[in-house]
Request: fold
Amino acid sequence: MKMGKSVREAFGLALAKLGEANPDIVVVDGDVHNSTRTEHFAKKFPERFFNVGIAESNLVGIGGGLASSGKRVWLASFAAFVMCNAYDQLRMSVAFPCLDVKVVGTHAGISIGEDGPSQMGIEDVGLACSLPNFTVVVPADEPSTHKAVEALNQMKTPAYLRAGRPNVPVLYDNGCDFKLGKAIQLRPGKDLTIIANGLMVAAALEAAGQLAAKGIDARVLDMHTVKPCDDAAIRAAAVETSRIVVAEEHLLHGGLGSVVTMSAARQHPVPMRFVGLKDTFAESGKPEELLEKYGLTAKDIVHAALELMSR
Amino acid sequence: MTSAHRADLEAKAKRIRRHIITSTTAAGSGHPTSSMSAVEIAVALYFGGVLRYDPINPAWPQRDRFLLSKGHAAPLLYAVLAEAGYFSPDLVPTLRQIGSPLEGHPNMRRLPGVEASTGSLGQGLSIGVGMALAAKLDKSPARVYVVTGDGEIGEGQVWEAAMSASKYKLDNLVAIVDQNGYQQTGPTAEVLDLRPLVPRFEAFGWSAQEINGHDLGEVLAALKKAQQTKGRPSALIARTIKGYPIQNLLTSDPNHHGKPLTKEEADQALAQIG
Reply:
């Protein structure tokens, strides 16, 4: 797999492009536009870009006010800061009035590396899923991020888009049939299904390759939309492959694993395993060292799959 | 202001106070005293010729906005909106009942004329900043008025909003602090005393005036001065009395926060209001 841009860079470029055809789009920034990559939009449309300083609560409230006045709002900050610092504002000034505000949390997961736990959004997806009216999307690569931004722009309701810091492999080099709420099958399989999103989709594909060498035929689904999740794809996975491994760069509580489990339990319960951050903060280190130490690699997915197969 | 105009406004204020008392007593809960302190502020805005609004077309893009950041004073907002013609006054007695759009705190999705869903204190001014920014961007004449409590401004977000309003020179934004001197558990002076508020707002780059919040003439004059202030937002520090004008009935608990009047107290209050 060739390397592509980071999801945050892909988001920033897609947003700047959207700004051309959408004069009502405004962007609100908490003084991190060079990190979140909203600077691409800021350079093209300075009159529609508001850096309100280091004040996430106010950032979100202003977004709600702009949206109430008919603007189409995108606001971005680090996932850890916008979701954790401004949660009440997301709840009352965006979710409850169901406003057209797209919230982008960058530097999500532990793969930000050296900056350490204070900067790592590890609970953001769970928090976003707990906001009624919110759609929650976790893209895996550059092409699908472009599609996700375009798809979210078609909606007038609130959404959360999660964007990682590091460059990631390109999974959809030949185009991407991206529909919100519809998982993408990247590899067919009949023995088990690996359901992943974000950074873990590439790891899932790598794991499926390793499993194939052991004679195990793994299906891989990119569950980019966590809410609403693709119940049909989960049901098909459960019925047709009888085993599910969920992999995400997020705390196990409240993230993709929880969502997929509820869906499967309701429709067709099957044995499952979970690869994610196990009720702990991470630490500083190189991204690949952290992913290895905290159990978020292809090897960990293979281990979980083999455990399921040996039941 | 002519004496006839003043008499009209005073009559409106009385009607609104009667709605506040009767609706909260009927509901058996709510915040009548927090609502009563801001009556003249709301009357001046809605009926004193300040706010530009159209109850027939509540989504008119160029309308002025009134945001009740102290959302617990919802009974005041509902009474004012009913009197302004957004919906029938017959709806007012349904306050807080299941199925009624007159919820305990304002829900903009359920009731025309409600500009923001408030109730978690401290958020209204940021929303107002966003609306004022949108108006500037659209070159709209819309002005934004946000009413906060004096206890509410202990929320740090209020000051984040104040700083950003000043940065963007939002002279179309007015914050009105209903300084009734009490918050949930006691006098604001004892819980978290932020006075003097005029220099505090001035230090944040605002124009600020202190007024008697129950004197309609003073409120209207201050609002007019705010309209003429260019290049920065305006704050009105409105000195008010919680429960005005029936505070004499509340001698055992002048705060009387979040409690309706009993039927007997309500009858006395209505008689006093006239």
User: Anything to note?
Assistant: The radius of gyration of chain A is 19 Å.
